[in-house]
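Customer escalation, tier 2.

The customer says the design service returned an amino acid string that "doesn't look like it belongs to this structure." They asked us to rerun it and document both sides in this ticket. The original structure tokens are below, unchanged.
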């Protein structure tokens, strides 16, 4: 704005005329901001340090992502994360400071669907799941296969996308109140 104001004043206009032109440009650009045509809010992956809302009745209220088990960029809908409980209910199964695994059920980053539509939520939310280890011996030695499938809580609050079915998180879908 300062650059636009200085260039208008240097063209020989009066100070008042230059200011009125600058303010009219500012008003029109703010209307553009309101409509979302000039700038759009950038939505990113769930990454290390992201605070997520816990949407089950396990006792946790807020979880901070420590690591995404998907890849380097971060987690999206249906991905498993490792998190630390930052806020918890006093009589819950999960206590504050505990390291837990969780499945991202709502993400602010948009995800494309097969039919061409996009799904995006207002917040980032996670359902806390337990770890189930299966002892499987491979030819080179003993390796354990880890499955993250059983939710700690017995209810899931809020909408859950149907993409969870593709991610083999059927137990979360059965506990959910609303499937989007």
């Amino acid at each position: 704005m300062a650059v636009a104001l200085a260039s208008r004043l240097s063209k020989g206009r009066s100070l008042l005329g230059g200011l009125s032109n600058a303010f009219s440009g500012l008003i029109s650009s703010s209307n553009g901001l309101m409509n979302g045509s000039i700038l759009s809010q950038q939505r990113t992956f769930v990454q290390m340090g992201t605070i997520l809302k816990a949407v089950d009745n396990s006792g946790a209220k807020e979880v901070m992502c420590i690591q995404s088990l998907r890849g380097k960029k971060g987690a999206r809908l249906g991905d498993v994360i490792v998190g630390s409980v930052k806020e918890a209910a006093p009589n819950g199964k999960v206590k504050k400071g505990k390291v837990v695994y969780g499945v991202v059920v709502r993400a602010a980053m948009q995800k494309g669907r097969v039919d061409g539509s996009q799904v995006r939520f207002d917040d980032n939310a996670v359902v806390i799941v337990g770890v189930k280890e299966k002892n499987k011996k491979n030819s080179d030695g003993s390796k354990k296969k880890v499955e993250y499938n059983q939710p700690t809580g017995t209810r899931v609050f809020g909408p859950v996308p149907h993409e969870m079915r593709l991610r083999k998180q059927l137990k979360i879908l059965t506990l959910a109140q609303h499937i989007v």
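Tier 2 assessment: The sequence is consistent with the input. Strands lie at 51-54, 60-68, 80-88, 99-106, 111-112, 118-119, 125-138, 141-151, 156-160, 176-179. The first strand starts at residue 51 and ends at 54. Sent an explanation to the customer and offered a walkthrough call.
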